[in-house]
Design a protein that fits this description.
Strand order of the largest sheet: 2-1-15-14-12-3-10-4-7-6
Number of helices: 9
Structural class: alpha/beta
InterPro entries: YqeC
Pfam family, one: YqeC
Oligomer: single chain
Protein name: Selenium cofactor biosynthesis protein YqeC
Helix content: 25-40%
Radius of gyration: 18 Å
Strand content: 15-25%
Largest sheet: 10 strands, mixed
């Protein structure tokens, strides 16, 4: 995989998300406070689960105990799943595999939120907690409604994800919560925006930056000031897309933002 991040004023590439996000440094600062695991909540669309798998894989490689869960819904995992929400079952999986995917099954091929009490009990068993905190119906772009995303109160880092495969495509085909996106564009979008009633506008990189800023970054920073909130432009699977992503983050003045690509081509894609 490829991860692109700003360091010393220039863009660097790594094959590790931990490097791009400086997670060792961030987790070290949290550990000094002695206040539980490091919690990352992922929002938006365009590859949240793939990012979670890679982060879990890298954490496991370092000997961390990784809890993966959701506050909304995610697919039932093929392995590492514990659905009883019992501490002893989760602990046994963590001791054996160093990772667990926990939640309640809903009979529709999905797992859902286990509830606040169980969530906080299970967090105490892990070093790193990865939360899928938003749903996008497998579309690369999303603008949330007022009750979304669902961020746990112990979150340390919020990753706001957008997929670059949305660029150049019709919003009606690639954007979840289209009506919310249209409202954001009407207020904050480019001067020549004309989304129409049916979303027949082609999404530009400028549009993606606008929707990210006003759909996720600004609202979440205001609502969760205790957490860091940064953008992740995913699906940067070519050099050209990586350059486009880094250029967009520069234009947005998002120094902490990262781009990621080729997540489906490496081993962590089969983790769970």
């Amino acid at each position: 995989m490829d991860a692109y991040y700003k360091d010393g004023g220039g863009w660097n590439r790594s094959d590790r998300l931990f490097d791009a996000l400086d997670l060792k440094g961030r987790m070290g600062q949290k550990a000094k406070k002695g206040s539980g695991p490091y919690v990352i909540s992922l929002t938006g669309g365009g590859g949240k689960t793939s990012l979670i798998r890679r982060l879990a894989w890298e954490g496991m490689e370092q000997g961390l105990k990784v809890l993966v869960t959701t506050t909304t819904h995610m697919a039932v995992p093929l392995r590492l799943g514990v659905f009883s929400c019992r501490e002893e079952d989760v602990k046994a999986m963590l001791d054996r595999e160093h990772a667990v995917v926990a939640g309640q099954t809903n009979g529709e091929g999905k797992i859902s939120y286990m509830g606040d009490a169980a969530y906080h009990r299970l967090c105490a068993l892990a070093d790193l907690v990865l939360v899928e905190a938003d749903g996008a119906k497998r579309l690369p772009l999303k603008v949330p409604r007022g009750n979304e995303p669902v961020i746990p109160d112990n979150t340390d880092l919020i990753l706001c994800v957008s997929g670059l495969t949305a660029a150049g495509r019709l919003a009606a085909e690639r954007c979840f919560r289209l009506e919310t996106a249209q409202r954001v564009m009407e207020i904050h979008g480019r001067r020549d925006y004309d989304g129409g009633e049916d979303g027949q506008w082609r999404i530009t990189l400028e549009d993606m930056g606008c929707l990210m800023r006003y759909g996720y970054l600004e609202p979440l920073r205001a609502q969760y000031p205790q957490a860091e909130t940064i953008p992740v432009l995913n699906q940067a699977d070519t050099v050209e897309l990586a350059r486009a992503a880094s250029g967009l983050l520069d234009e947005m003045k998002e120094e902490g933002g990262i781009a990621a690509g080729r997540l489906l081509e490496e081993t962590s894609a089969g983790l769970f």
